[in-house]
Amino acid sequence: MTGVPMTAAARVIRDVAVVDGDSGAGAELAEPVDVVIEGEHIARIEARGTTADADVDVDHVIDGVGRLLLPGFIDAHAHADGLLFDPDVQLALLRQGVTTVIGGQDGVSYAPGDGAYASEYFAAINGPHPGYRGGGIRELLASYDGTTAVNQALLVPGGTVRREICGRSTQAANPAELAAMIALVAEGLADGAVGLSTGLDYVPGAFASTDELACLAEPVATAGGVYVSHMRGGYESGSQAGIDEIRAIAQHSGVAVHVSHFHAEPHLVHGLMAGLSASGVDASFDAYPYTRGCSILAMPVLPASITVRPTAEVLALLADPGERARLLDEWFPSIVDYPSLGPDWPEQLALAHIAAPEFAWAHGLTIGAAAARAGTTPAEFTLDVLAASRLEVNVVMAVRYARSDADLASILAHRRAMGGSDGIFVGAHPHPRARGSFARYLRSLVVDHGAMSWADAAALVSTRAADRFGLGARGRVRAGAVADLVLVDPARVADRATYDAPLHLAEGIDDVLVAGVPVLAGGLLTGATPGRGIRRSNRPEA
């Protein structure tokens, strides 16, 4: 057979079944094809064997026999803002097929500003950024260009914006402050951010009113971005209040909205999403395939009026006998009312990251078990470990009412659902979602339970997020698309990270390309760094 002319830079993925997020048929029925990549894009998809061996350098051929080719997975809610440069983090993501993460989540990240607030308050979530020295979204996005194997898109973090303009104030923004915040959001969008995020259980976002948030969403709507929110109210049975606030923000501004880690009973998720749609609100959400959560310990166990202060002041307060007694006697009895916790909260919170070496023995233990080993009460132990770690502690949080795999499948089958791990890579005993979520979607939903087709899974983990967040010509396997591509072995793909052993890498995804460049080969990093900071594009690149 006569070969098709190819450029010197061309690569071929041979004899592979293509799964596209727009296709309706199951990929297991598709005829295998050859996919030709030239430069950063897919040049063409041809009948198997059309490209002759003589036309291709053997080093540029990937054997796809028995595997499926999917568009690179997009993590719609990730916390790799500062750690994406770490090869171990890149490997953990790529072994799940994740080629792009969306950061700046929960209202807190490094830009705009000098990054100090995020590096302090969210140290146990986002980690330190090794290169960002201040500026804005433009500078932060540039830090990812050619320095990592995985792409990073960013949201303007609303809490960081408030911190830049209003300092640590707990009061409503005055007109001048509000105007300055709106301008800072607009600047971040002009620099390439894909939207605005808020974290309304965190500080200072917790002090922002609905009216303030609605005004900040105005430039987001104008730019065609998305308002992304960790809702106020604790989720689960309290989701209605958070959704009502999101509806008010959307109806004021006209912005498209996205609910972060929307975890509640399936009938609540479906009902509340239907309610938003009936109100004319363009809404979507992400959800990870686990029932436990993860966050900084200080958020549920200390008042926001305390955690909004500089760390040095909080530590001084925790060391003050009178203030400590007040917290133990008056505050801690009230945390049982936190929506996701209850009277057995010490057994619901397991220690994932503790910055104090003297408490390293407690990693993986619940606060109740660790307190018993230390010979103190759970409340006293909590204050001790926070003080010793300068508040840099995160915990895996069990919920009172765990959902079944069937419930999770029902939530993730929603046509507006997207894959989002909420993955946190900081910690000796982290939540397994950071290393398992995307493989778990495929294994549980497609292979084990048949809850969705491979094409539906591709839409869940890639296509919808690419379209929603304006990530250019990504999320599809077709000519002209950016060649962010994942080869999946359907017989082997599986998550291996568990709550007891959370550092195990996923299996069954051994070859991944970013912008046409192999970044994972044979399950190992190649050392190539074609990743970039993705700037918002409201029209696909091709």
UniProtKB/TrEMBL annotation:
Protein name: N-acyl-D-aspartate/D-glutamate deacylase
UniProt-recorded Gene Ontology molecular function terms: hydrolase activity, acting on carbon-nitrogen (but not peptide) bonds
Stored Pfam families: Amidohydro_3 (PF07969)
SUPFAM superfamilies: Composite domain of metallo-dependent hydrolases (SSF51338), Metallo-dependent hydrolases (SSF51556)
InterPro entries given in the database record: Amidohydro_3, Metal-dep_hydrolase_composite, Metal_Hydrolase, Metallo-dep_Hydrolases_sf
Stretches assigned to the Amidohydrolase domain: 61-519
